[in-house]
Write a structure and sequence with these properties.
This protein has about 425 residues and is α+β, with helices and mostly antiparallel strands. It contains 16 helices and ten strands. The strands form three sheets. Strands 1-2-8-5-3 form a five-stranded mixed beta sheet. A three-stranded antiparallel beta sheet has the order 4-10-9. The chain has a two-stranded antiparallel sheet with strand order 6-7.
């Protein structure tokens, strides 16, 4: 493909690019660790060190547009000023997902992330892990006798939704309703200003109820969790954090599980290696996060003038941190395009972000994926990709969700033998 063809590819809208985006990423990286992308007027960051520098410079970079990027504008043009902080604070609520933790800046982000960590304590994660191992078996029981399944619909989406439901203490009698309502939401990503209305309504009801009538349950613990300074947060703050964990955690982890199982199905020798040694499952997951992360990246907006990678950037610059490309930076990872579960620095990937915006649900996602892979390998032998649905091994047909920030399969049809 000619350079002019590569330069004109729409990173965010091209329907074919998700099938194999890495040649495009390599070309962008050849232009430098930062490259101005005229199609959307943003700087693409493929350099590992440069991405780290931006992640850690909260004074310069705002997260207000982390989801909306160049696609949604403030109601007023950016003013000609040396510091956009006051303008951003006055207008950030106009952008989609502005009420969600990933879009917050310190000090609000600090307080709300601290609250989130009080909801997913190590003790609670440990209790939740016991549930997820049993749930994995229960979900597999639904299709094991058929010798086939569609992984996303039959397993990954309901599994990840129910794991978070248990973590947050959603009452047993309400979990089926959560599944019915949210299953299609996860499958059909849409850009809405406030896309989590159902979750907002449910968690507001739960938290208000537990604050007036406390019980000996997880939901009460969540309702009474305090900010790090000891103050009780407004109901809406707890509700939004819970809703975000429910929505974002389920969606990304289901995609991660899909890509992991696809890789095992496409590489029988790797599948057998993990089946023989479950100690390799964790490094396998880390290498999957490095090479096939569900999250493509995130946007940032500069408040003030700055220099990154030797390039001077004025206030109001939008960058897109291409974390899946930065995790393949050859300056950081030797032979970055090679899948190597023995890679000594494999866990240094950016699949979960970095710094204060490292995904708070990363331990949960790792545990869910680990439990899934171990149970699949224990209970199934010769996990195969369905050629009827996806074609032969040398000519696979996979479809990917058409989202500009996430990469994941629409469907994954499997065949297998019982172990």
């Amino acid at each position: 493909m000619r350079q002019t063809d590569l330069a004109s590819i729409d990173l965010f809208r091209d329907k074919e690019l998700p099938h194999d985006p890495y040649p495009f990423y390599d070309w962008v990286r050849e232009q430098g660790p930062l490259w101005y992308y005229p199609l959307w007027g943003v700087w693409l960051v493929t350099g590992y060190e440069e991405a780290i520098a931006i992640y850690h410079d909260q004074k310069t970079w705002s997260n207000c547009n982390t989801v909306s990027g160049p696609f949604f504008k403030f109601s007023e043009p950016l003013p000609d000023t040396d510091d956009l902080t006051e303008f951003i604070e006055a207008h950030r609520a106009e952008l989609p997902f502005s009420d969600q933790l990933p879009s917050f800046d310190p000090p609000k982000h600090t307080a709300h992330r601290g609250l989130l960590m009080r909801l997913i304590t190590p003790k609670r994660l440990k209790e939740n892990e016991a549930y997820m191992w049993q749930l994995a078996d229960d979900q597999i029981d639904e299709f094991i006798d058929r010798g086939e399944c569609e992984l996303l619909h039959d397993y990954a989406i309901p599994f990840t939704l129910l794991v978070v439901a248990d973590l947050l203490g959603v009452p047993d009698e309400d979990r089926e309703a959560f599944l019915r309502h949210l299953h299609t939401k996860v499958r059909a990503a849409r850009m809405e200003h406030k896309p989590l209305g159902y979750l907002y309504e449910q968690f507001t009801r739960y938290i208000e109820d537990r604050r007036t009538q406390p019980r000996d349950d997880v939901m009460t613990e969540m309702a009474l969790a305090t900010f790090p300074d000891g103050t009780l947060p407004p109901v809406e703050d707890v509700m939004r954090i819970a809703a975000n964990l429910f929505s974002a955690g389920s969606e990304t982890t289901a995609r991660l599980i899909g890509m992991c199982v696809r890789t095992l199905g496409d590489h029988p020798e790797l599948q057998e290696r993990l089946r023989a040694d479950h100690g390799l499952v964790s490094p396998f997951i880390e290498e999957m996060l490095r090479t096939e992360a569900p999250l493509k990246g995130s946007f940032k907006l500069s408040r003030v003038a700055t220099t990154v990678g030797g390039i001077d950037l004025p206030p109001g610059t939008t960058v897109f941190l291409m974390t899946d490309a930065a995790s393949r930076d050859p300056r950081q990872f030797e032979n970055p395009g090679e899948f190597d579960i023995d890679r000594p620095n494999g866990r240094q990937h950016l699949g979960f972000g970095h710094g204060i915006h490292t995904c708070a649900g990363a331990p949960l996602a790792r545990a869910e994926t680990h439990a899934t892979l171990v149970r699949f390998l224990e209970r199934m032998s010769d996990i195969r990709i369905s050629e009827a649905h996806h074609g032969p091994a040398d000519a696979r047909r996979y479809e990917y969700d058409p989202t500009y920030m996430l990469r994941g399969l629409k469907e994954l049809h499997l065949e297998f033998d019982r172990a």
